[in-house]
């Protein structure tokens, strides 16, 4: 049953994510609305997007504590995902083998960062006012995923070889058997829940940020005429 669910969720994630990106690409931007101060050249827009995606530049200017929690979580998540490549790639390039320790440390950082973001969402009145149950649910789900992953690393050691065989069979659609480890099954099921809701939640900001007209437009309305896509 879990195997069938895993394949269904994988297809939902791939198709749903791709569809949402296609919708973003097709959505017209009738107005020139970059948030000022904004770059006036394409190279400046590329640098601005880089600082937004990697350094959370706007958040840093807005609230330093929120920026710290956000950058800690997203940076840790990136390292954890890189570490998890060892379960999906065979043979694993040597360069990734040297990053394993950083992924473990990142997992330890990710939980307190998520707890901080969860408490902040409830503690700050203006943030609590605009938060929905889904916002809290996603944070709690991420915490559960991180804690179950850490438990497998430090408390209950599963069979890594069988897990890797199963994950490669999953992503290559060649079939797999669920490893007989209860904690891994819980961890994997939580990940599947996250993947299933990803394309239909605010988590899509991971791809949608690249299509935000307030960020990806150059502030050059005098130099270049912005044509309304709906015109004509």
Q: How does this model look, in words?
A:
This protein has one domain: Fumarate Reductase Cytochrome B subunit (Up-down Bundle). It has 12 helices and no strands. With 232 residues, the protein is mostly helical. It has helices at 2-26, 42-55, 57-62, 64-83, 94-97, 100-123, 125-130, 133-154, 160-171, 182-197, 205-208, 213-216. The chain is globular, with a radius of gyration of 21 Å. The longest helix has 25 residues, at 2-26. Helix 4 (64-83) runs antiparallel to helix 6 and helix 8 runs antiparallel to helix 10 (182-197). It is 68% helix and 0% strand.
Condensed summary:
The chain is mainly α and 232 residues long. It has helices spanning 2-26, 42-55, 57-62, 64-83, 94-97, 100-123, 125-130, 133-154, 160-171, 182-197, 205-208, 213-216.
Q: Which helices and strands occur, and which strands form pairs?
A:
Elements: H1 2-26, H2 42-55, H3 57-62, H4 64-83, H5 94-97, H6 100-123, H7 125-130, H8 133-154, H9 160-171, H10 182-197, H11 205-208, H12 213-216
Largest sheet: none
**Helix and strand succession?**
HHHHHHHHHHHH
Decide which structural class fits the backbone: mainly alpha
CATH architecture: Up-down Bundle
Mean pLDDT: 92
The top-level CATH class is: Mainly Alpha
Tell me the radius of gyration.
21 Å
- The CATH superfamily appears as Transmembrane di-heme cytochromes, Chain C
Q: Tell me, what's the shape? A: globular
Name the beta content range: under 5%
Kindly, what is the distance between the CA atoms of the first and last residues, rounded to a whole number of angstroms?
53 Å
Low-confidence stretches: none
